[in-house]
Amino acid sequence: MNESVRSVLLVGVGGQGTIMASDILSAVMINAGFDVKKSEVHGMAQRGGSVSSHVRFGPKVYSPLAGKGDVSILVSFEKLETLRYLEYLKPDGKVIINNEEIYPPSVNLGEALYPGDAIDFIKNHFKDVKVVDATAMALRSGDKRMANTVILGVLSSCLDIEVDIWEDVLKESFPSKILEGNINAFSLGRGV
Amino acid sequence: MKQLMSGNEAIARGAYEHGITFASAYPGTPSTEILEEFSRYDGVYAEWTPNEKVALEVGIGAALGGARALVVMKQVGVNVAADPLFTLSYTGTEGGLVIVSADDPSLHSSQNEQDSRNYAKAAKIPMLEPADSAEAKEFIKIAFRMSEEFDTPVFLRSTTRISHSKSIVTLEDREIHEENRGVRYNPSKYVMVPAMARQRRIVVEKKMERLSKFAETFPENRMEINDTKIGIITAGMPYNYTKDVFPGYSYLKLGMVHPLPHDLIREFASKVERLYVVEELDPFIEEQIKAMGIDVIGREVFPYTGEFDPGVVETAITGNEAAVVNLPDLSLPQRPPNLCPGCPHRGLFYVLGKLKVFVAGDIGCYTLAFMKPLEGMHSTICMGASVGMAHGMDKVIGGKEKVVGVIGDSTFIHSGITPLLNMAYNKSNSVIIICDNRTTAMTGMQENPATGFTLHGKETKALDFVKLAEALGMDNVRVVDPFDMKNTRSVIKEELSTEGPSLVISSAPCALLAVKQKLPGKTPLRVNPDKCTGCKACLGLGCPPISWKRFEDMDIKIEKKTKKQEGIAFIDSSLCNGCTLCQQLCSAGAIEEVVEDE
């Protein structure tokens, strides 16, 4: 793997704003002067399926997709989805998890169990794991849908990029009505 | 100005910058956004056509009239457009015609993994393949220049990872190129009866020879000579995967994948010690290089199926796996996409699942109804197949067991009308159901001939399914509301026992369309825990907001209604759309409207 390129993998459930978060991250990295590529699978994302978005940045990026074992930071908007993508992480990779459970259909039907010990399992295999109550924090900013902005705030504290660059992109990304709430949610996350 | 753009956005931008004003397509993942993006530019005309064959024929007409025409489809759409395609290379295109085909390695959103490059070879049409968004924007322009220079249609091949990956693109100004629009009378070129087609057949071969020479010096077929121990011949996205892990190898990066530059390939092969071809899907380049007698490594080490990534390429070439943390197999519950809360398909397929009929299905959101718990679909082949298949099955087993065909509104228009005519003509006894949700939902709510609006948002004639069915000769035509499951069930049962072909139109708007059009919402529902008997009937709908919990997993104490009761159902009211299907199934009357003040 190309060592000068860093990969962030954002995962979640359709409708959680995973792709929007990866758009914001990509814009930040462009403004910070990096070459950026990103890739995700569209299609039926609105329909509650598993969603993943790769963002890669560096002086020169070729592949928009990260391979297994190549991801520096796994950003997960839902606990179970974190487990699905762990194999993409570098052995010393970082994990940021929104402490939220969204049951897939088989769990709702009582045919499968939602893994209860997901966080312990991840902590047993990776050293740097941040679990964030992003939904509760987003509620404090006025709307639980801002949970993805809280998580972006947490992510920003793991990347060496000036906060002004983040805030400029947030300003371009949200309509003025919900901008203040999102800036607030971002700051809460950044303070975690 | 630099901008992060998807491959699809870049193709649309490139066409706009090149002054293209005419485009046609049928939506299909991963190609859909190309026409949507293109249609948003000023001074262009774009249309959704009923299917890809029509899209291409419209494009051929526009090009014959002297315009430059862009035609867009996904890989399986090329099958539908294949009939005009194979003769179009004979006639040539006059004004300029480029066909974008978006392949889907790994079948993210397709029913097969076919490789469009085979069409380029079989139909004798040159094909370009970009490796990122910047190239996509540039190559669409080159494709139009080639089409005009060689009087041939030109393919631009994309894949999911080109179409739906974003990379940096430099925007340029629009250039207007003159078009010589007008009628051309030239029967020996455009009337492909055998006598004239035989002549054009020779022209095509000569054209391909000229294109082969052109490929030798085509600047986008480029050598990058570095370490000559290993040489890589590749094209499109696999170039990036390989370059990512092996920046120091030597490369022959092909911008044109048909026809191949044989001399250039020989020259490159002579410069390197060990030669690999890195390509997804079919060994298209590999087989041609092997046929040239050149020793090259391909499928011996690379997977036959699925898309690659940098790790796949690294493992294939070095034999080493990437360093990953060893994790035990967790057998996680899958999270497939599901029909939305309030989806009109759910009630219909719940009824069909319970009726114990074979359901020949089709392509659309409703294909998801094959999964548990609905299990309301038993076959899916291609766009429109449901209608002919239901009829064929009914002809051979009719009477003994029942068969129903189910097809969406846009899919029916795409290729369900002709087989419906066949049913009437050949005295079928089958029942076809059109799930008319008034939009092309799966690809993101595009207009179609039944919605009453064009791609540019202009009001137009809306196809009337009832009148159409009557004109085709359908004896029995019924319209049902799928949110009324009792009536839907009795109408389908009646039609199953009625002589002659029947059409049932299951009519209700897509739940997402209702939100987009700001239709009045319904009151969300909740489960009254004091009434719920835990019978799980509501779970049979597979509706995302409905879940079920055991008493021992709950913090609150709830009294059992029956001795055997083990838990109760819950509805996440924040996700519920209030469609009432679960209410219709609840014999305990436990599902109630959420009261605002609670």
Question: Can you characterise this structure?
Answer:
The complex is a heterodimer of chains A (192) and B (598). Chain A has 192 residues and is α/β, with parallel strands linked by helices. Chain A is built from eight helices and six strands; from the N terminus they run βαβββαβααβαααα. Chain A has helices at 18-31, 79-84, 105-108, 118-125, 134-140, 147-156, 163-173, 176-190; strands spanning 6-13, 35-40, 50-58, 71-76, 89-98, 128-132. Chain A has a six-stranded mixed beta sheet with strand order 2-3-1-4-5-6, sandwiched between helices. In chain A, β4, α2 and β5 form a beta-alpha-beta unit. In chain A, α1 (18-31) crosses α7 and α6 crosses α8 (176-190). The longest helix of chain A has 15 residues, at 176-190. Chain A is globular. Chain B has 21 helices and 22 strands. In chain B, the strands form six sheets. Chain B has a seven-stranded mixed beta sheet with strand order 3-2-4-5-7-6-12, with helices on both faces. A five-stranded parallel beta sheet of chain B has the order 14-15-16-18-17, with helices on both faces. In chain B, α15 (385-397) links the parallel β14 and β15 (403-408). The mean pLDDT of chain B is 96.
What kind of sheet is the major sheet of chain B?
Answer: 7 strands, mixed
Q: Count of helices of chain A? A: 8
Q: What is the succession of H and E elements of chain A?
A: EHEEEHEHHEHHHH
- Tell me what portion of residues of chain A adopts beta-strand conformation: 15-25%
So, the CATH homologous superfamily of the largest domain in chain B?
Thiamin diphosphate (ThDP)-binding fold, Pyr/PP domains
* Distance N to C terminus of chain B: 53 Å
Level-2 CATH architecture of the largest domain in chain B: 3-Layer(aba) Sandwich
The proportion of strand residues of chain B reads 15-25%
Number of helices of chain B: 21
| Helical coverage of chain B, percent range | 25-40%
Assign the CATH architecture of chain A.
Answer: 3-Layer(aba) Sandwich
Q: Low-confidence spans of chain B: pLDDT under 50, at least 5 residues?
A: none
Q: Using the coordinates above, name the CATH class of chain A.
A: Alpha Beta
Helix content of chain A: 25-40%
Oligomeric description of these chains:
heterodimer
Characterize the largest beta sheet of chain A: strand count, sense, and whether it forms a barrel: 6 strands, mixed
CATH topology (fold) name of chain A: Pyruvate-ferredoxin Oxidoreductase, domain 3
Rg over CA atoms of chain B:
28 Å
